[in-house]
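Hi everyone,

Forwarding the result from last night's run.
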Amino acid sequence: MPTIEVSHKDLTRLLGKEITIEDLENLILHIKGEVDEVLGDIIKIEVKDTNRPDLWSVEGIVRELKGILGIETGLPSYHINKGDYTLIVDPNVQEIRPYVAAAVVKNIKLGKHGFSSLIQLQEKIMSTFGRKRRKVAIGTHNLDLIKFPVYYKAVDPDSVKFTPLYESSEMTLREVLDKTETGRKYKHLLEGMDKYPLLIDSKGEVISFPPIINSNTIGKISENTRNIFIDVTGTDLESVSIALNSIVLALADRGGEVYSVTIEYSNDVIETPVIEERKLSTSYNKIKRIIGMDLKDSCIVDLLKKRRLSAEIKDNEITIKYLNYRNDIISAQDVAEEVLIAYGYNKIQPKTPSIYTKGGLTKRRLLIDRIREIMVGMRAIELYTPVLVSKDVAGSLYDKKYLIELLNPVSTQHNVVRPTLLASFLQILANNKGIPLPAEFFEVGITAIKRNLRRIEEWKLFYTYLDSEVSFNLAKEKLERLFVEIHKKYSLQKTDIKFGIPGRSGRILIDGVDAGWIAEIHPAILDKLDIDLPMVCFEISISTLLKLS
């Protein structure tokens, strides 16, 4: 969660109202924040909302506080001037870093505090919301040194030289990655690419090398810079737009004049930034049920205005309007939360429940706890492995048509939901050599597959034995002990399993129902992952055990 530093003097000046540290500590709770430390004029604030990059600056905090204090309520008002600025996108960046948005802010008086806030906001967005620059990277540049149109290109890494920010000599793009501290830190973002992205102006001057570093001339701004060109590049246009809006509105709140930039893609032309109203309509009765208090309609509308929203209630429907620098309002629950934050959680009176119930563990939890106790008693070590695994690993164990894939995975190592706990264990084992032998492990966890357009989730028990030599009977002995302890009968059906050695695998049946498998893992699977330890395993569906109990 981002922790930002703000100047108390700067905050009160922007707010237009004197406010004590004690009062600020209470008010910051309304933005899901907490005053962490006060060092003279500097206040450290931990913002606990990772979906609101607009709050990671003193300007964003002041925008919210004005609503809470009733200084300005309802939708904030911003004007985007039509700019005579063009940014032309080379189609070749599509496979590298496909999206870019930009804006111009003129006549801004940053000063010491404004400059510090801008740099801090830029870095917080890139590191947190931007996934350490992989998803979003931001550049701020001296507009007065740029000749438009600007070009966003894909270039050969050895064909262009420029002086990187805070460096004294020219370097090629490849040298920037090897010789500068920032280059070495983010070099992995361009790994395996033949061409690198570059922003240059019409004079051929390098503006920046996204997502790595700005130039030391055009890309260097100070507290005295009056006119700023902002670029945001990334892998997702919505995220790029939100990041740009957060920066632009912070500068607008300091008195900057915002101008649009025309972005010319090969198949489209857009203008950025876009600050527009969005709507969400939902059941008003549902909102009131979630709130749990009998508040008047006018009171709810006023509370939402304090959250810098607008609301209209008509025919049991409430329509919320908000500006698109926010992307966290998607359901009735979000609207109810806004009302309750404005009302104040501390003001909510507790109610005595009319129905008393006795708490207890579910049948599934009781069975899981019993199984864990048995497995530990058999000297197996319990594991907790990630639910997400590599598609390559999961696909070697399960038919790929059943795999649930992520739309925008952060890593190729975690791009599908595991269909079996074996997939997670193999992936962990492949990256952790030198396990003392013999070794026994188990895990109780959830798996999921898709079948007939439905997601099917199951809780399962996985057990494995590793040694220089293993046999089917080693796992079978553990299986028999387990079923004796849980007072269940089972049988084995000889079946060749995709990832098992032929003749050394089978299905586990309970009352004739398929409840899992047992197998010595095929060497081809292990060799593919560079695992040189033979393994014998079994996996049982706890969900099936519960159904048959």
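The chain is about 30% helix and 30% strand.

Cheers,
N.
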